[in-house]
Task: inverse folding
């Protein structure tokens, strides 16, 4: 009998539902919340309210697009954390109620594991190239920057992570001070394609081991910008493409320096990238260059699986279903936790 999973993701500002059949994606619906743009960042209370409005229509749409009746579902998988508590509570409560009403198992998924396992989502008629275990995954999002060693679907070890800001957070904050809008990542990416990545130099961190730090880069960017604006009040307008390209290049260098070190230490050359920042074209190009230069087998996700989506929660849910790794209804949401 087929295993059909309904997956729910509501950890931050995207309400998403997906349906998967035997690991193949049937539908993946994402409702993004434009309401935060005016504030230059996610406002938790507004995010929870928007999830509350979106969750039922998004789930209905996912079932409809998949051509699946709710009575055919085998289980409901949901993001239990980490994320914004108010946002998580909407998806968690919905998933619990839905599974209880249908009398089917509940499967809790760690949002970060979901990002990593996005590489295993299969789509009918596509190549579906998947990493072989063990592989390394550079997990870069708005809240996390980690190098993860993935030994199996359910066996991941963090080799290094940020000790302060995440890569996406640093890009978003620099974009905000440039007055470019939110979220900054896609805007910086677009501008960077037209700029010179060597135009400006920003400081790089000296952190031991495989850990990252991005707060120094942010300070160095702000400090330089203040100095240049004193000399030319229109500096940003005149130089925004070069500023974006140089900022992006510095972030990519910092990320790839440690990743190369991790490959050297572990001798693992299967290397994947995941999370919102993996949509970045500079980072994707650098991955391709590393594959050529160092012989890595690289895995770059489709754009639709980089930012938050329920498809990745569904694939993790599918593997957990095979292991009969179910969750009891009394398990609460959690806002912060390591894998
Ligand atoms: O994974 P994600 O959707 O949310 C978290 O779980 O954090 O990642 C969001 C982050 C934001 O910082 C956003 O600016 C960044 O991913 N991002 C990008 C790009 N698209 C999204 N950063 C750089 N280049 C992009 N094209």
Result:
């Amino acid at each position: 009998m087929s295993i059909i999973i309904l997956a729910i993701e509501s950890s931050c500002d995207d309400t998403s539902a997906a349906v998967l059949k035997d690991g193949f994606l049937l539908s993946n619906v994402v409702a993004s919340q434009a309401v935060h743009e005016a504030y230059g960042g996610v406002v938790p209370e507004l995010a929870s309210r928007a999830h509350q409005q979106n969750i039922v229509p998004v789930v209905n749409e996912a079932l409809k697009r998949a051509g699946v009746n709710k009575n055919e579902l085998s289980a409901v998988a949901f993001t239990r954390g980490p994320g914004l508590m108010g946002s998580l509570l909407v998806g968690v409560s919905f998933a619990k109620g839905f599974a209880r009403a249908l009398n089917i198992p509940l499967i809790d998924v760690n949002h970060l594991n979901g990002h990593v396992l996005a590489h295993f989502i299969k789509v009918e008629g596509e190549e579906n190239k998947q990493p072989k275990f063990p592989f390394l995954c550079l997990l870069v999002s708005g809240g996390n920057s980690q190098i993860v060693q993935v030994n199996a679907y359910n066996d991941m070890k963090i080799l290094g992570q940020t000790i302060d800001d995440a890569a996406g957070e640093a890009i978003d904050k620099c974009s905000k001070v440039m007055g470019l809008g939110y979220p900054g990542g896609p805007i910086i990416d677009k501008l960077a394609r037209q700029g010179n990545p060597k135009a400006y130099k920003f400081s790089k961190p000296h952190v031991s081991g495989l850990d990252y730090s991005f707060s120094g880069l942010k300070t160095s960017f702000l400090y330089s910008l203040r100095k240049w604006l004193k000399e030319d009040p229109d500096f940003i307008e005149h130089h925004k493409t070069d500023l974006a390209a140089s900022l992006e290049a510095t972030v990519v260098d910092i990320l790839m320096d440690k990743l190369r070190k991790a490959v050297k230490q572990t001798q693992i050359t299967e290397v994947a990238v995941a999370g919102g920042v993996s949509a970045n074209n500079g980072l994707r190009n650098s991955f391709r260059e590393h594959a050529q230069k160092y012989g890595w087998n690289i895995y770059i996700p489709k754009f639709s699986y980089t930012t938050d989506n329920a498809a990745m929660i569904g694939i993790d849910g599918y593997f957990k279903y095979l292991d009969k790794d179910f969750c009891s209804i009394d398990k609460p949401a959690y806002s912060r936790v390591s894998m």
About this structure: The pocket of KG4 is lined by residues 12, 141-143, 168, 171-172, 183-186, 189, 275-277, 279-280, 307-308 (CB under 6 Å). Strands lie at 4-9, 14-21, 24-32, 75-81, 106-110, 135-140, 145-152, 155-161, 270-274, 297-299. The chain is about 40% helix and 20% strand. The mean pLDDT is 96.
